[in-house]
Design the sequence.
């Protein structure tokens, strides 16, 4: 194991420090998290690592509140951000099992006076981000005033005014708006706020003792403070959001490591929903053209070093969160941080690699694929085409057709174009063949992934490409420096 490489002269110390693989990994995790706190300027992190039903690490690091110098503990409450979408999806599935709704019903069945577009949008499409409804949270959208105390009726009216970016079911584009609508629908059909419905039907039965709706007015023990950087990079308190908006079902919960431990045990047991609900929850959505996109109901379906991953991240009000599960390793890593600039997802994936070396990020110094200039050129051409709204022969049809019209996509294309203006080269780091389980779970044609480094004078950018059987790029993502 890489983490346990020591010189022979240090053997006695090694025996004391790493009497077991778990102990060695635990010490490495502590060192990594502490390094993140200092190098990235993150005030605090809460971390839960579970494997095979056993807690490997459940610990707080740093400060929950800088002004009062309060330390993070397993009882500290962080904001969920969009990881809360998985709970909203459970509420919808519960109502479907109760017979109160059907997933393929159009929204107009419940809101007959809704705009004409809502007659073509189904509940399933809201769950899977394929409704086409513009995301109210897009950069500088101005669709909602974060300082206004909206009522449910006002929120509904605001959602109904949002335009469609594309025809429902035609593409996938992340939309917080869809989950706001789902929360309003749950409240309407349940006759109580969606958070009360979840507390009764999910949180209390599963023994999640402190998970609750955000309220900055209520006295909430162990609540962490969220922090954001200003334009000069100076850390400050989170921006204020009106209580009437800070309670929506796209991710407005407090939770602690105690809650997440109970949640992870419930996920392992798989008994709080019907078996076919779990299948739907983790099945990639099928688009109108028959292709699939690796997103289920409030969960991304992904891979890491070729292994199957089920995950979701969250970001809100100076908080970041990530819930990352590796079913074939019986491993789960759950991270919460109280800094808007923290990369909770990368922290989680790095910790997973410390526990299971097979999952470890390939070092930037490794160049297993650098002897294939033709392959590097094809990948670079995909980046050039994407950044300039063109297609490339090296793109799989699904990527070549993608054009959601969203501000998020436009921002991503601009970012790639900006990086390419000063890039010197694309250096391949190596590739991974996906496991059979990962290929099946994603179901979008991905069979291989390739790590590469876009090298430039201002620093290097790491990317991960997903490829189909013909070597064409299905998708790619910037995963860090």
Sequence:
């Amino acid at each position: 194991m890489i983490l346990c490489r020591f010189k022979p002269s240090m053997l006695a110390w090694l025996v004391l420090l790493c009497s077991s693989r778990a102990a060695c990994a635990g010490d490495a995790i502590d060192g990594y998290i502490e390094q993140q706190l200092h190098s990235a300027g993150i005030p605090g992190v809460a971390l839960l690592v579970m494997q095979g039903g056993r807690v490997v690490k459940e610990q707080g690091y740093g400060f929950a509140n800088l002004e009062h110098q309060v330390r993070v503990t397993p009882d500290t409450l962080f904001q969920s951000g969009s990881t809360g979408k998985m709970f909203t999806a459970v509420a919808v599935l519960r109502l479907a099992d109760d017979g109160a709704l059907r997933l393929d019903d159009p929204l107009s069945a419940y809101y007959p006076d809704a705009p004409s577009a809502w007659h073509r949008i189904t509940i399933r499409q809201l769950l899977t981000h394929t409704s086409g409804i513009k995301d109210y949270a897009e950069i500088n959208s101005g669709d909602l005033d974060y300082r206004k105390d909206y009522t449910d009726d006002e929120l509904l009216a605001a959602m109904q005014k949002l335009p469609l970016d594309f025809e429902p079911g035609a593409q996938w584009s992340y939309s917080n708006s869809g989950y706001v609508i789902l929360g309003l629908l749950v409240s309407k059909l349940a006759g109580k706020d969606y958070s009360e419905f979840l507390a009764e039907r999910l949180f209390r039965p599963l023994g999640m003792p402190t998970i609750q709706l955000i309220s900055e007015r209520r006295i909430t023990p162990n609540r962490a403070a969220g922090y954001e950087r200003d334009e000069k990079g100076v850390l400050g308190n989170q921006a204020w959001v009106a209580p009437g908006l800070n309670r929506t079902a796209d991710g407005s919960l407090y939770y602690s490591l105690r809650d997440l431990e109970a949640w992870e045990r419930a996920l392992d047991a798989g008994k709080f929903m019907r078996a076919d609900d779990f299948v739907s929850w983790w099945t990639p959505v099928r688009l109108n053209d028959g292709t699939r996109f690796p997103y289920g109901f409030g969960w991304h379906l992904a891979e890491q070093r070729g292994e199957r991953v089920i995950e979701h991240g969250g970001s809100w009000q100076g908080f970041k969160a990530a819930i990352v599960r590796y079913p074939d390793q019986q491993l789960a890593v759950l991270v919460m941080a109280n800094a808007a600039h923290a990369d909770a997802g990368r922290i989680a994936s790095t910790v997973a690699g410390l526990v299971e070396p097979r999952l470890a990020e390939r070092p930037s110094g490794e160049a297993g694929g650098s002897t294939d200039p033709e392959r590097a050129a094809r990948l670079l051409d995909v980046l050039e085409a994407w950044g300039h709204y063109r297609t490339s022969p090296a793109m799989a049809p699904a990527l070549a057709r993608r054009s959601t019209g969203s501000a998020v996509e436009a921002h991503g294309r601009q970012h790639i174009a900006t990086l390419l203006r000063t890039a010197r080269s694309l250096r391949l780091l190596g590739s991974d063949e996906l496991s059979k389980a990962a290929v099946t779970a994603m179901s979008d044609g991905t069979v291989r992934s390739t790590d590469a480094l876009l090298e430039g004078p201002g620093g290097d950018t790491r990317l991960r490409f997903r490829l189909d059987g013909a070597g064409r790029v299905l998708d790619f993502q910037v995963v860090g420096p």
Observations:
- Confidence is low (pLDDT under 50) at residues 1-19.
- The two ends are 24 Å apart (CA to CA).
